[in-house]
Amino acid sequence: MRIAATKSIEPGTKLAKAIYNENGQILIQEDVSLTQRMLKRLQKYNITYVNIKDSLTDDINITTPIPEKLRMEAYQTIKHSFSEFQSQDIGNSSFVFEKTSKQMADMVGNLMDELQQADQVVSILSDVFLTDNYVFSHSLNVTIYSLALATELGLPRSKMEEIGLGAMLHDVGKMFIPQEILQKQGSLSDMEFEIIKGHTDIGFEFLRNNHNIPLLAAHCAFQHHERLNGSGYPRGLTEKDIHPHAKLIGIADVFDAVTSNRVYRDALLPHEGLEVLYAGVGDLFDRELVEAFRRTIAVYPTGLMVELSDGRAGIVAKQNQQLCERPVIRILEEDGNAVSVPYEIDLAEHLNLMVTSCFATDLAKS
């Protein structure tokens, strides 16, 4: 199977992995031939990439470290918890907070266990299920990325639990921002942007008044938009005053934001999202954390089409765990012509070659 952009798929192409909604219900079965109507519906729901069948890549297996069932359960936990928080009076909701915070902490533990057992780099590009709220799906993705980064750093489990819960709750303040501003398709006015920036203060005040949630989670919500050079918000803190957990979550937050499809722009591919982070190293983001983050994700996800520095092109066939930016490539084209027999080349063993471009269209269309 391979990854293809929904905007480039021709009707009649067969789906390689089923597409679910957030309740675990199958919306489009595996092996179904996609129609123009289906493709437009996927694009409407901001699904940028799907896995499709291809005779040249049928044996390529695209896997993810978080099983689909657990991912959906985690999404539902966040959705339910955030909705409960939003509907309760803070002063009279200790029971609700105790129950929901425990559910979230338990889910963080489940995600952490899967990531540590999976022993593979993280790729959310091929995790396809339709969700009804960006805040919920973003909170889940940031949690997964943050836990993967914490694992790479070798942090103790107690610290990982703190980071996971802080990541899951980092955007809870957005539940109290008007939806018409959060979902606005056009440019935000200065006033609207200030309102959105206020989610950090709102989240902090909301969480610090809940004694069932660690105060550190409140600080993660408060500081995840702070930057090393003081250019962030809400307080313009500099490197020494930003909590290490907030620095870590801030990197995961930016990466998921730029690699997710939004109503106002298309998603970047993972290597492009990494370029955004590297462009901010030193001024905005900690170099050690960005370097560690690079080692945790599939820079070039399995199933993605790439072009090499010598002009050959093909599909990412599998990952090299310790060299995420140098995967195994199945060569399908040489000098713009299809090869008679596809073959694989391991970039970890051919250091003179590098990936020069990525695309999610047919090779002939690239």
From TrEMBL:
SUPFAM superfamilies: HD-domain/PDEase-like. Residues 113-309 form the HD-GYP domain. InterPro entries: HD/PDEase_dom, HD_GYP_dom, HDIG_dom. CDD domains: HDc. This is HDIG domain-containing protein. It comes from Sediminibacillus halophilus.
